[in-house]
Amino acid sequence: MANSKVRWNGSTEDGRTTSVQWNDNPFTWGDVSLAVEVAEVLKKAGSSPSRRKQSLDKLLKDTDKKQRFIHLVCRIKGEKVYDDKVEVKDIDVKVEDAELVVETIVKKVKLEIKENV
Fold first, then answer.
1. What's the rounded Cα separation, in Å, for the pair 44 and 83?
2. Are 70 and 91 in contact (CB under 8 A)?
């Protein structure tokens, strides 16, 4: 997704309107990129709770990605994160938190991603 061309100005070329515009969006492109990645992993895993959990855990084996995800969940839930140096290795990430991120970011911003444009 890093090389994707993304149009985000309140409408898409096919006339759809987004519910969030960049100038009033509380999330960074990095947040959106991570949320899209989580959404794709959950979708690919299907409806089995154990497969979804395994897929999410596999994605978040990267400790930097896991820390970014945990901070994103905390921001969405309104919880303050005071220490960026907290070890996240032992924190268990729940599928429900991943679904919250997807609902809050991916389903509301309606990204239009174009490649090779």
1. 33
2. yes
Summarize pLDDT for 6-62 with one digit per residue, the tens.
345 545 444 555 454 555 667 888 898 899 899 999 999 999 999 999 999 999 999
CB 69 within 8 Å of CB 27: no
- Residue appearing with tokens 């290795």: 89
User: Is it the case that residue 63 has pLDDT exceeding 90?
Assistant: no
The C-alpha atoms of residue 26 and residue 74 are separated, in whole angstroms, by 13
Residue linked to tokens 């969940």: 73
* C-alpha 85, offset from chain centre: 21
Question: How many CB atoms are closer than 10 A to CB 90?
Answer: 5
Long-range pairs, 3-9, Cβ under 8 A, ≥24: 3/115, 4/113, 4/114, 4/115, 5/113, 5/114, 5/115, 5/117, 6/111, 6/112, 6/113, 6/114, 7/112, 7/114, 8/109, 8/111, 8/112
Check residue 22 and give its pLDDT: 57
Q: Helix, strand or coil for residue 100?
A: helix
